[in-house]
Amino acid sequence: MADQNFVAGEWAPAHSGATDEIIDPATGEALGRVPASDAADVHDAVQAATAAFDGWSSMAPRTRSEILHRVADAVEEDMAELSRIECQNVGKPTGIIEFEMDLTLDNWRFFASAGRFLEGKAAGEYLDGYTSYVRRDPIGVIGSIAPWNYPLNMATWKLGPALAAGNTVVLKPSELTPYSALRLAEITADIVPPGVINIVCGRGETAGVALVEHPDVAMVSLTGSVAAGKAVARAAAESLKRVHLELGGKAPVIVFDDADIDAVVANLRENAFYNSGQDCTAPCRIIAGRRVHDDLVARLTDAVADIVTGDPFTDGVEMGPLVSHAQRDRVAGFVDRAREGGAEVTVGGRSRPGAGFFYEPSVVVGVEQASEIVQREVFGPVVSVQSVPDEDTAIAWANDVDYGLAASVWTSDVGRAMRMTKALRFGTVWVNDHLPIASEMPHGGFKQSGYGKDMSSYAVEHYTEPKHIMIKH
Ligand code: NAD
Questions:
Q1: Is 280 a catalytic residue?
Q2: Ligand 1 centroid, distance to 90 Cα (angstroms)
Q3: Which of 56, 128, 212, 467 lies 20 to 30 angstroms, CA to CA, from 275?
Q4: Which candidate in 86, 100, 175, 280 is catalytic?
Q5: Residue ID of nearest Cα to ligand 1 atom 13
């Protein structure tokens, strides 16, 4: 496995020689070591990206598109190995990896083509004697910082639109999950010109901070926690860098009395526990009408009890471990405190003893709107269920969190669905489903879930600046 930084098309250790150990979450054992980079390593990568910018940004969109389609081809050819790396590094069951790898490939194909559709909105005579037009220019060197939950997919959401728009990138993967980004660099090294994609491994407080503070980085794009987003926005303000933030979520699932409860239970069983619940849009906060609440809790409890948890490489396993010991402790803390506060855990609620960072899929009921488990992102295999008296209270509770990334509404009443989708303050609202995703559609937050969109043409536009050209006749 590639285990060095990738800078200017070459592999390099950290200047300091320091390394970080990478852990297999299913066993707790070491997988290997990667550079623990600092400001000197980040500086090299930013210089390489700066040197590559003129050539990459000056290419015709068609030429860049052809290169990015070859990146997509390389991802497709290497799918088995990329999937294996991702399953081992994050603890994802091999039986569930296909969905996100297929999305990753489709994202690459979408961005490869979307860069050809960038356009300014106006061309004309807006003052007598002048012709104006608008062009969209790339921004420059982008510092991209990715999380650990979908390492290659999140790297793709960072790299794809930035490169398609003509920028060059220094990507810092999560310190827990660097291997798929390094593999991507390895399989595309002969396709993408040197310096266009640079990968620097390391921690947030060292390599991440250095990237955000570097004067030659024009824009920072982070996917991560709200706390990291605030730190990045504060640091970027010093030099007024552009900032793109995709942060945490706490998705409500509003189930009205006229909903198809079988469909709700099937969706929650699959999607609330997908990737061990480590998904920013995971359906995790169920707000159920009074008449369906008890039936929903009973059926969901039975369904969740059946989820097969275990070794990611064993056939039939549906849920693997959490990504780290710290993340498992964090999740356990939320459930323990909810229990101490009077909530009932109808299924799960414990760590699995032995090796690996396993936590049981869990359902918590009898929780107050103001309680921590309703208000804060758990980012684990835990859902809470609340009983709600009416539509207005459902809207109020759903919106009453700091986050605003995703939500779903379950009802057979079209009018109610329309009212709810308007009233909910979230970047994505599903009706009678929760989690499907398409490359053409924007993904991003309201409120403290961040700003700037991933995927879609909105993402490509976000990595450009509109420029007004005015010509006197
Ligand atoms: P995290 O915030 O701990 O780390 C994310 C990345 O930021 C890592 O690479 C880390 O090294 C870096 N980082 C941390 N502090 C930094 C700083 N001060 N300066 C620069 N870089 C810094 O998040 P995580 O635990 O890796 O990921 C989980 C979080 O990501 C959850 O909150 C989840 O909701 C969020 N997430 C959001 C989306 C989305 O699309 N909105 C998608 C996936 C994950």
A1: yes
A2: 15
A3: 212
A4: 280
A5: 204
- Predicted confidence band of residue 312 (pLDDT cuts 50, 70, 90): very high
Tell me the pTM. Answer: 0.97
Q: Given 86, 100, 175, 246, which residue is catalytic?
A: 246
Q: How far is CA 353 from CA 135, 310, 359, in A?
A: 59, 12, 9
Residue whose CA is at the smallest distance from ligand 1 atom 43? 280
**Is pLDDT at 303 greater than 90 in this prediction?**
yes
Q: Tokens in use for 292?
A: 């369906």
Is 318 catalytic? The answer is: no
| 408-436 tens-digit pLDDT | 999 999 999 999 999 999 999 999 999 99
Residue 396 Rama label (left phi>0; alpha psi -120 to 50; beta): alpha
> Which amino acid, residue 173?
P
Q: Cα of 311 to ligand 1 centre, how many Å?
A: 26
Q: Write out residues with Cβ below 6 Å of ligand 1.
A: 145-149, 154, 172, 174-175, 203-204, 208-209, 212, 222-225, 228, 231-232, 246-249, 280, 377, 379, 405, 445, 449, 454
Q: Is the pLDDT of residue 122 over 90?
A: no
Using a 10 angstrom Cβ sphere, with 0-12 exposed, 13-18 middle and 19 or more buried, the burial of residue 324 is middle
Cα 122 from chain centroid?
33
- Asked if residue 76 lies in contact with residue 103, where contact means CB atoms within 8 angstroms, the answer is no
Average pLDDT rounded to a whole number, residues 285-303: 98
Mean pLDDT of 355-381: 98
Measured from the Cβ of residue 101, the count of other Cβ atoms closer than 10 Å reads 21
Residues 6+ apart with CB under 8 A from 323: 25, 90, 91, 148, 149, 176, 177, 276, 278, 357
**Residue 131 pLDDT > 90:** yes
